[in-house]
């Protein structure tokens, strides 16, 4: 796992295009451009601008040796002050499912959120029937705290989501 870089556009476009059908039930509608190198370059540029503003931290999950992208995890919606919270979202190449990669990345992002940003809380949401993602969150120490009806527009409809959180520490805000 490493920070996303401008040079990741081609590899991410390739991985996303190969996994497009597999990920469709869990994703919002994406334009054709999203699955191209140009689309990913624009997305990365926006993520890096958000990173520089302190609102997002984005990481690419890479294959050892080749460095090819096999997934991505984002820590976004970072709010400091007395709230000190953020949210995570992730995806992993179908070929890498079931190997613990998403869990390891989630644990590492929680460590970064606590140590580098001083965040108190991380939240995540999953589709009600996305049991694999719910297992990842449980293994990473997240607890379910609610249900959000019609939370996100996913795969053509407003979908209910289970909401999870992990409290990282109980220290006062910095």
Short description:
This protein is α+β, with helices and mostly antiparallel strands.
Helix vs. strand class: alpha+beta
**Percent of residues in β-strands:** 25-35%
Strand order of the largest sheet: 1-2-3-4-5-7-6
**Alpha-carbon Rg, integer:** 16 Å
Describe the sheet with the most strands. 7 strands, mixed
User: How many DSSP helices?
Assistant: 5
Residue-averaged pLDDT, rounded? Answer: 96
**Shape field:** globular
Extended strand count: 7
Order of helices and strands: EHHHEEEHEHEE
Query: What is the CA–CA distance across the termini?
Result: 27 Å
Helix content: 25-40%
Uncertain stretches:
none
Secondary structure layout plus pairing:
Blueprint: E1 2-3, H1 9-18, H2 20-23, H3 37-52, E2 57-62, E3 69-79, E4 85-92, H4 101-115, E5 121-127, H5 131-139, E6 143-154, E7 157-167
Parallel strand pairs: 4-5
Antiparallel strand pairs: 1-2, 2-3, 3-4, 5-7, 6-7
Helix pairs in contact: 1-3
